[in-house]
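hey so u asked for the seq, here:
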Amino acid sequence: MLTGGGRVVSYGSADTPPDVVPRDAAETVDLGDVAILPGLVNAHTHLELSWMRNRIPPSDSMPAWASRLMTLRRDQGTDPTGPMTEAIREVRAAGTALVGDVTNTLAPYDLLADSELGGAIFKEILGFNAAGPEQMVAAVQSELDGLTPLEWLRPSIVPHAPYSVSPSLFRAIAHAAGDRPLSVHVGESLDEMQFLRDGTGAWRELLDRLGAWNEEWESPGCGPVEYLDRLGLLNARLLAVHGTQLGDGELARLAAAGATLVTCPRSNRWTGAGTPPIDRFYRAGARVAIGTDSLASVEDLNLFRELAEVRRLAPQVPARRLLESATISGAAALGFAGEFGSIEPGKRAELIAVRVPRAIEDVEEYLVSGLQPDAITWLETA
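ran it, structure tokens below
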């Protein structure tokens, strides 16, 4: 492989003709028994919540878990940046090159700017009973316009979830999104399905307690995918995060629209949302990406460990497809397919070497077995 200017110039095996890979143009380095991969893509996380590690216990109720998170965050007042910085280092050490980071405060932006990570920065808006949705979106867009523009960090506005964003705010965000990726927590819990079906249940009760209920809201009487379609969000730019409770028809509909399903199974278990039907995600033909979610609901931000959980839940899916989900599928979903996710001429030389024991016969299967950072080395490229 030949790199230059931080990009892949050419690559090939030892038998590749020299006119394809000019080996005399660079030093040859023998890396030993390793698998070389593009840096992984963590398609969904919340770095600003990193200070909550081990602060919210696992739950059997998603609304109850979310209520504890909101109380803890309110009592804290601000999200300290030290744990965010450490989390960014942790993400990088575990072999990740690109993140889809959801933020309410934009606090991680400058920290990411000083790191080696690239990212789609999703400024998340909530407002179930908010007046002036267009003005709200315009104010947030002005905030994004004030950020230092960087090639490897791309900010955009996204909605939180069907139970926390009003229909008018959803539409305003969809209109403002243009051709940028749009991430939404959707189909995450049975409580969400009940809320959309008839406007009752734990999410309704939580909105009431928070004083955020909108008496004019009418339940759509449908599932979340149909709801997003009615609001203008069902398209190839959509990242449908979690999808734990989606049925086969809804999955087929996401696939037909070219949307991406982002699965975070360890977080789903922690929050009580349920177990995602990952094998059905793949059978539906949808693009599948993988995220860790935040340290408020997962033990670490190691995407290789998330891959191991995906493999456990979907043993029939070929390991190669899982690796694609953790690399090129995530990069495409985040709008970075031309830069990250695969080893191709012109793409960034963000490459990792994974140490592979000589006794391993199926390298791809080994790579989805739950690797630790001590097996991963970032390659120094010219």
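DSSP finds 15 helices and 13 strands in the chain. The radius of gyration is 21 Å.
lmk if thats what u needed
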